[in-house]
Design goal:
Number of strands: 0
Oligomer: single chain
Distance between the termini: 140 Å
Order of helices and strands: HHHHHHHHHHHHHHHHHHHHHHH
Largest sheet: none
Length: 485
């Protein structure tokens, strides 16, 4: 039956394959050959020997592939030799040994990159275990004490927006190790990662992120932690809790708040995670907003990570605008008293939150928001006053204030008082110029209401002057009576 179905060429090929299997000692091929197939003859000498017997130089496609064990053993030896950590002090570490480790790390990185390109992992279980051990030995280390002074409180220095840069001397070895880690995570399937990367490894990775002063290392750690979060779906809740606990400790523990390295990177990871939340937002995520993100506004070092923090908060409001009330109340409750720089940042955040609201939501928040901004307009700090005045240049803010019925009557009197006070007595000429521009704008938007507010302000000032004169007269009488005795 087989001979009838196959052509002559295919039959010749089948005979050759079965004869090769018989030569390798496979019994099923021997039985098949005995019953159905005669030995194929060599094309060159017409003998009944194996077709490869007359041409030993011809490569045989029937040979098994070479064993990868020697290559794996060599790679394991290289990985094991890279677990030694160097302090990068010439008196302690020989330079040639450091250079040798750098070269071996490059070879390991090449092997892992090759695995990623081939879409398969040519590293057996022993190699993977050795890699994870090398990661632990090189990355999870005792950090030296802070070599730089603490950040200037509340942005009181010149370059207050960014922490001082401290570079690690061991970066020539740390960089390839992080590159190997990123390539390993990208090339390994989720099942293998779950088997080798446990929760202790994830916790140590996060602790290193919060302890390292080198911004290059923190950036690599942020990328690695985020990639692991994307692959280890069963550990995502644990990773979110770990980040929440770390941020909560920073927000409430004064000792932990003295060292703010890594907070911005953790918030950046959180922002990416929040961006992928489903709507409606779960209760545990609401609790994260109220109990973790909002208290971070109160720290002295909020200026160092405020951009990432504001992004997280705004993502929550975009997902669910009903959370804007809790966000605004949380910001106003933690409003700074002595930090001008933080006031400017929070005014910007309030303005961005207002832009995401509709008319009904703004109507319920207009009075507390505008009352705070009006007080900032009258601030003696020129930066705070200017930033608060620029809120009125926001088209969305003007649209909401004008469209909401009765809102202008509630918010404009406080603004008029601050505007007139700035024009009369503010020390900054720039603030006076911006105030005059805002006054002209308000007179165009609501001329009658503005004029009425000015009249009411004049009446209140007259009453205040009369009350002050009465108090002064009473004090004179008291002083005269005291002098007569």
């Amino acid at each position: 039956m087989v001979g009838a179905l196959l052509s002559g060429r295919c039959m010749h090929w089948l005979k050759a394959v079965l004869w090769g299997r018989e030569q390798q000692g496979q019994p099923w091929a021997r039985r098949w050959c005995r019953g159905r197939v005669s030995r194929p003859r060599c094309g060159s000498c017409s003998s009944s020997r194996s077709p490869t017997a007359c041409s030993p130089a011809r490569p045989s496609s029937l040979l098994p592939p070479p064993s990868p064990e020697p290559e794996a053993d060599s790679l394991i030896d290289k990985i094991a030799s890279c677990t030694r950590v160097f302090a990068f002090v010439d008196a302690v570490d020989p330079v040639h040994e450091r250079d040798a480790k750098t070269e071996r790390l490059g070879e390991i990185l090449t092997a892992v990159h090759s695995a990623a390109k081939q879409q398969r992992m040519p590293l057996d279980h022993r190699v993977t275990v050795a890699l994870v051990k090398m990661f632990r030995g090189n990355l999870f280390r005792a950090m030296p004490p802070s070599s730089s002074p603490p950040l200037p409180p509340d942005g009181g220095g010149g370059d207050e927006d960014t922490p001082p840069t401290v570079l690690s001397p061991a970066w020539p070895h740390l960089q390839p190790v992080y590159d190997i880690l990123l390539a390993f995570v990208a090339a390994t399937d989720a099942k293998t990662l779950r088997h080798h990367v446990d929760r202790g490894f994830l916790s140590s990775l996060l602790m290193t992120l919060l302890a390292s002063e080198d911004p290059r290392e923190r950036d690599r750690l942020k990328t690695a932690y985020h990639q692991l979060y994307a692959k280890l779906t069963c550990d995502r809740a644990f990773m979110r809790r770990s980040m929440a606990h770390a941020l909560l400790a920073f927000a409430h523990d004064d000792a932990a708040a003295d060292h703010c390295c890594g907070v911005a990177e953790v918030l950046e990871i959180c922002g990416s995670i929040i961006n992928g939340f489903a709507v409606p937002v779960k209760d545990e995520h609401r609790a994260f907003l109220a109990r973790v993100l909002m208290p971070l506004h109160r720290t002295r070092w909020a200026h160092a990570y405020h951009r990432q923090l504001a992004y997280c908060v705004l993502e929550f409001v975009r997902k669910e605008p009903g959370l804007a009330d809790d966000v605004v109340q949380g910001i106003l409750r933690r409003w700074p008293v002595t930090s001008c720089h933080k006031e400017v940042l929070l005014i910007e955040e309030l303005e961005e939150v207002v832009e995401l609201l509709d008319t009904d939501q703004f109507q319920s928040l207009a009075v507390p928001v505008c009352s705070r901004i009006a007080r900032c307009v009258g601030s003696s700090s020129s930066q705070v006053a200017e930033r608060a005045l620029y809120v009125w240049n926001n088209e969305r803010f003007l649209e909401l204030a004008s469209a909401s019925p009765g809102v202008m009557e509630k918010i404009l009197p406080a603004f008029v008082a601050s505007v007139e006070s700035n024009l009369e007595q503010h020390w900054s000429k720039c603030v006076q110029q911006v105030t005059a521009s805002v006054k002209s704008l308000l007179q165009q938007v609501a001329p009658e209401l503005y004029a009425r507010c000015v009249d009411d302000l004049a009446a209140r000032r007259a009453e205040a002057e009369v009350a002050a004169a009465v108090r002064e007269a009473r004090w004179r009488k008291v002083e005269m009576a005291a002098a007569a005795r």
